[in-house]
Amino acid sequence: MGVLFPGHEERFVFAEECETWHSWLHVFHPQFPGKLLTRLKQLPWPLPLSPAMSDLTHEALMLRHSPLPTADELLKALAIQMIWRYIGEGDDCK
Asked: What are the pLDDT digits (tens) for 61-80?
């Protein structure tokens, strides 16, 4: 997994011999403090997908179709949790 920043161009290649899965979290106009952005940019890239991050991704996908009136707020909170987990896991890999 990795963080993609505005203004960069990325190219992805997927396996041709087997089925692959991909998903992403798109945070609209993040209001991150400068120190947090600097920290995100210093992490190793890519990171392996951990079981915990996989679980959070699954929860986010389930919330997209949730009838809960708080689904949008839950998704926003989950996005922040995923960003902090990414930072924690990235710091652990350094």
From this structure: 899 889 999 999 999 889 88
